[in-house]
């Protein structure tokens, strides 16, 4: 099967009206959308999703940010999806992100960095199942 990855257009992207432009860039880069919805994470959702960062000093700020408004979550399909999507979004810190990447274009800071991309095939599967029921993934 073609590889899949999981993404979220984070609250800052939705607030700034960047949903359309970011999705256009994603699909123009060869990713097929196989699941997508607009939802708002609860505090409990965000604490669970980002549990790996629980001990980090920015954890509280991260949970506040990710729950302050709706996000667009999606599952994307493409050969080499995880790695290619991380290349497309660019470095976590937009100051380090390459020209033309989504974070270079749309992210404000290392904290408010516009988009999420899974960091492994295993996490892509876990994160997709966290956000979507089986019947929502095509
Ligand atoms: P992401 O890599 O998708 O997942 C972890 C998130 O934590 C990261 O995006 C940022 O939104 C946030 N983050 C990472 N490093 C920092 C930092 N130094 N300060 C604030 N937020 C951060």
UniProtKB/TrEMBL annotation:
Signal peptide interval: none
Active site: 116
Protein's GO biological process: CTP biosynthetic process; GTP biosynthetic process; UTP biosynthetic process
EC number(s) recorded for this UniProt protein: 2.7.4.6
Localization of this protein: Cytoplasm
Top enzyme category: transferase
Domain of life, source organism: Bacteria
Key words, A-Z: ATP-binding, Cytoplasm, Kinase, Magnesium, Metal-binding, Nucleotide metabolism, Nucleotide-binding, Phosphoprotein, Transferase
Reaction equations catalysed: a 2'-deoxyribonucleoside 5'-diphosphate + ATP = a 2'-deoxyribonucleoside 5'-triphosphate + ADP; a ribonucleoside 5'-diphosphate + ATP = a ribonucleoside 5'-triphosphate + ADP
Record-linked Pfam families: NDK
Cofactors (names): Mg(2+)
Keyword rRNA-binding found: no
Stored InterPro entries: NDK-like_dom, NDK-like_dom_sf, Nucleoside_diP_kinase
SUPFAM superfamilies from the UniProt entry: Nucleoside diphosphate kinase, NDK (SSF54919)
Binding positions (ATP): 10, 58, 86, 92, 103, 113
Any GO CC annotation of this UniProt entry: cytoplasm
Family in the record: Belongs to the NDK family.
Function as written in the Swiss-Prot or TrEMBL entry: Major role in the synthesis of nucleoside triphosphates other than ATP. The ATP gamma phosphate is transferred to the NDP beta phosphate via a ping-pong mechanism, using a phosphorylated active-site intermediate.
Family matches, as PANTHER family: NUCLEOSIDE DIPHOSPHATE KINASE, NUCLEOSIDE DIPHOSPHATE KINASE DDB_G0292928-RELATED
Complex and partners: Homotetramer.
Name used for this protein in its record: Nucleoside diphosphate kinase
Species for this entry: Marixanthomonas ophiurae
Gene this chain is encoded by: ndk
């Amino acid at each position: 099967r073609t590889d899949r990855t999981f993404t979220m257009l984070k609250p800052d992207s939705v607030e700034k009206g960047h949903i359309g432009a970011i999705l256009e860039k994603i699909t123009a880069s060869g990713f097929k959308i196989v699941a997508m919805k607009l939802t708002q994470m609860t505090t409990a959702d965000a604490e669970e999703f980002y549990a790996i960062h629980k001990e980090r000093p920015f954890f509280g700020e991260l949970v506040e940010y990710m729950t302050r408004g709706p996000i667009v979550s999606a599952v994307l399909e493409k050969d080499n999806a995880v790695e290619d999507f991380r290349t497309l979004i660019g470095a976590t810190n937009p100051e380090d992100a390459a020209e033309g990447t989504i974070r270079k274009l749309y992210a404000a800071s290392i904290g408010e960095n516009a988009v999420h991309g899974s960091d492994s095939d295993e996490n892509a599967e876990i994160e997709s199942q966290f956000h979507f029921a089986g019947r929502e993934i095509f």
